[in-house]
Design goal:
alpha+beta, Sulfite Oxidase, Chain A, domain 2, 9 helices, about 25% strand, binds ligand MTE
């Protein structure tokens, strides 16, 4: 049975009716994180949970647990991509443009202290400390298909909560129609900010209804651990029906605007990267097809590529957001 949540208009399954997949039964829901860097942020908040944790990775601290999500579409049954692929094959251009660069270079990122600045058209602007940000809503585990515009895909168990919880907390004004997300740009720790690949800081944007959609995840962890730095620690965006570049890493600023905000990739190549960037196998990138994809860790170089799904397989959940829009113009 589905119930309608009057506050957001989206359908959620009743928790008691959800059977967790085997994989979740077997796994303990702990966010273990490295006893360095980010460690400080979580310890105070999660000390009690830590005490409950019975599985510790050597050299790591179990610090946060997350419940499986009951948001429709948040748990796909595809095979989860191996952690090593998701944490070593990355795009994080501030740390280099090769896929292996971020895992090699991002150790210099300092994630504690950290705060996110809320600004623009909201009743409650101001800086939110990471420790407070972590407490805005209960942590959930969401297994999402991820599709990069370059043609590869992954299946990642993320940990976070719906961005809508934070948006409600800061009370946007009626005039706020979009949100811009800005990420850290610190020359002291990010060697590639001197390159001209993008106009830094990295920026992305969502329309308010997209940002409020329950699938849009403010993300703090993956694979039951705090986010590795190369994956956007300590907090990033994950919007599973859009191409990967919408998922801004290491967020420092969330700005509520009336006008459609600029985005880093749109500024760099407007004819290739539009504002919406919804996964769409029917609309090719000007330089290559988007009809198929290669799943990291599963589809070898010589395997037949798999078909890319409309809205990355989340059409039932998000299709209505774009009713009546020409998706070849609004790419
Ligand atoms: N965020 C920042 N700050 N800088 C980046 O270069 N790359 C984007 C996105 N977020 C990027 C970023 C791109 S192109 C992709 S595909 C995803 O991060 C990759 O996320 P992952 O490395 O966790 O898979």
């Amino acid at each position: 049975m589905l119930i309608r949540n009057s506050s957001n208009g989206f359908d959620h399954a009743v928790p008691s009716e959800i059977t967790s997949p085997d994989i979740y039964r077997q796994r303990r829901r702990f966010i273990a994180h490295m006893a360095s860097g980010v460690a400080g942020i979580a310890l105070a908040t999660w000390a009690q949970r830590d005490a409950r944790a019975s599985v510790h990775r050597p050299g790591k601290l179990a610090a946060m647990d997350a419940m499986p999500s009951n948001v429709a579409g948040a748990m796909v049954m595809d095979k989860v991509t191996p952690y090593t692929d998701a944490s070593t094959y990355n795009n994080y251009y501030e740390f280099g443009t090769d896929k292996s660069d971020p895992a090699r270079n991002a150790h210099t990122l300092v994630t504690n202290p950290w705060s996110v600045q809320i600004e623009g058209l909201v009743k409650k602007p101001g800086a939110i400390d990471l420790a407070d940000l972590l407490k805005v809503a209960p942590m959930e585990e969401r297994v999402y298909r991820m599709r990069c515009v370059e043609g590869w895909s992954m299946v990642v168990p993320w940990v976070g909560y719906s961005l809508s919880a934070l948006i409600r907390r800061v009370e946007p004004l009626g005039s706020a129609k979009f949100i811009q997300f800005e990420t850290l740009a610190d020359r002291k720790v990010m060697p590639y900010l001197n390159s001209r690949v993008l106009d830094w800081p990295y920026a992305e944007g969502l329309r308010m209804d997209e940002a409020m959609h329950p699938l849009t995840l403010l993300t703090f962890g993956m694979y039951s651990e705090v986010l590795p730095k190369q994956n956007g620690a300590p907090v990033r965006l994950v919007v599973p029906w859009k191409y990967g570049f919408k998922n801004a890493k290491s967020l420092v600023r969330i700005r509520f605007t009336e006008q459609m905000p600029s985005t880093a990739w749109n500024k760099a190549a407007a004819n290739e990267y539009g504002f919406f960037s919804n996964v769409n196998p029917n609309v090719d990138h000007p330089r290559w097809s988007q009809a198929t994809e290669r799943r990291l860790g599963e589809d070898g170089l010589f395997a037949k590529k798999r078909k890319t799904l409309m809205f990355n397989g989340y059409e039932a959940q998000v299709g209505q957001l774009y009713a009546g829009m020409d998706l070849s113009k609004n790419y």
